[in-house]
Automatic annotation (TrEMBL):
Signal peptide: none
Membrane topology: Multi-pass membrane protein
Residue ranges constituting the Sodium/calcium exchanger membrane region domain according to the UniProt record: 39-192, 222-363
Superkingdom to which the source organism belongs: Bacteria
Localization, UniProt: Membrane
Listed transmembrane segments: 37-59, 71-94, 106-127, 139-159, 171-194, 215-236, 256-276, 288-311, 317-338, 345-364
Species for this entry: Bradyrhizobium diazoefficiens SEMIA 5080
Keywords of this entry: Membrane, Transmembrane, Transmembrane helix
InterPro entries, sorted: Alkaline_pH_Ca-Antiporter, NaCa_Exmemb
Name used for this protein in its record: Putative ionic transporter protein
One term of GO molecular function: sodium:proton antiporter activity
Taxonomic lineage from the root: Bacteria, Pseudomonadati, Pseudomonadota, Alphaproteobacteria, Hyphomicrobiales
Main location: membrane
């Protein structure tokens, strides 16, 4: 069947507006300032940027539905990660040094996804269906790789002796980039080739399949996805100026920028995960959530590491003692939550409480 729902207008309008906005700003040489005109520009920029991110995720979801699981969530996850790398790299390489941004954003993604998003999905699913099931073997694969990558990139830099923490030396960072990419590549091979069945749970009874788009519609969707991703990359620099100005005006803590970037890039993916939980497809929610965490560490850290090395920038990776405690708590809690293959409301609530503690500690450390 090639029948499919018509493409929403926002799926092509926002990418077009993003490209036009970038062209207009570049042609006029506009410089953002904290003024009435700057406020209007910031609002327009954020609306278009959010809309373009949602458009990119919509196109990724259409492609994902066509290729099926587990490839589908992989397409969506990689698309979001490209946006994340573009935003982080652009802000870090800006005029104002931000060596801790990559660490703060990656940590924020892990906390938002593994506590906020996972908790909300489990809580909503528990309220609606009492219990929900998922593939225990798949969750274990996700968690084992996630724990290893997070420890190597976010905790280990505090305990090296070649250079004072929380940074890796150039050689150490190069080695970590290589092993991180290698581990993530083997995970992808496991997910898509060796053990695809680990990441696909039986659909809820009565839930039918989606109609697939035609070949022409699919080609258009792929093109618009590429345009959307390019538009986000082009506007990332302008977004970084707004973030810096707002953070300076309100006196926000250093981790605020990382939290804001993480919320921006995860919002549309979070909507997809919550919608899947409401449809009693917790497996898809887990694939999206834990897959985002893995892609964030497995791809963002190496990409940012290469960029900082090429442009001679400093990269701080080690978490504070407080952040390390929250990360370890998340590890232990995740092991319990995903240890039986069944979830309920209480598991979700505990994760959301830990997320609330994280957000509170960002502003009141």
């Amino acid at each position: 069947m090639s029948a499919h729902n018509p493409m929403p207008r926002s799926a092509w309008i926002f990418p077009a507006l993003a490209v036009l906005l970038f062209a207009a700003v570049s042609a006029t040489g506009y410089v953002f300032t904290l003024s009435l005109g700057g406020l209007v520009f910031a609002i327009v920029l954020l609306v278009i940027l959010f809309g373009t991110v949602f458009a990119a995720v919509h196109h990724a979801e259409v492609i994902a539905e066509r290729v099926g699981e587990p490839y589908g969530t992989l397409v969506l996850t990689l698309s979001v990660t490209i946006i994340e790398v573009a935003l982080i790299t652009t802000i870090m390489l800006g005029d104002k040094p931000a060596p801790e941004l990559a660490r703060d954003t990656v940590f924020a993604v892990v906390m938002i996804v593994c506590n906020g998003l996972v908790g909300l999905c489990i809580f909503i699913g528990g309220l609606r269906y009492r219990e929900q099931g998922f593939q225990l073997s798949g969750a274990n694969v996700y968690l084992s790789v996630l724990f290893a990558l997070a420890t190597i990139t976010l905790i280990m830099p505090n305990y090296t002796t070649t250079t004072p923490g929380p940074v890796y030396s150039a050689v150490q960072l190069g080695f970590v980039d290589v092993v991180t990419l290698a581990l993530y590549a083997v995970f992808l091979y496991t997910q898509t080739v060796l053990h695809k069945d680990y990441f696909v749970h039986e659909r809820a009874e009565g839930e039918g399949g989606e109609a697939h788009p035609s070949a022409g519609a699919l080609a258009l969707t792929v093109g618009l996805l590429l345009v959307s991703l390019l538009a986000v990359v082009l506007l990332a620099k302008k977004f970084s100026l707004v973030v810096d100005a707002v953070a300076a005006r309100i006196g926000a803590p250093p981790a605020f920028a990382g939290l804001l970037v993480a919320l921006l890039i995860l919002m549309p993916e979070g909507v997809s995960a919550i919608a899947a939980a409401r449809k009693n497809d917790l497996q898809k929610s887990i694939n999206l959530a834990l897959g985002s965490s893995l892609a964030t560490i497995g791809l963002t850290i190496p990409a940012v590491g290469i960029a900082t090395y090429a442009f001679d920038k400093e990269l701080e990776l080690g978490l504070s003692a407080q952040g390390s405690v929250l990360l370890l708590l998340t590890f232990f809690l995740s092991m319990l939550t995903f240890g039986t293959g069944r979830t309920n409301v209480l598991f979700g609530l505990v994760h959301m409480v830990v997320f609330a503690v994280y957000v509170f500690m960002v502003f009141v450390p």
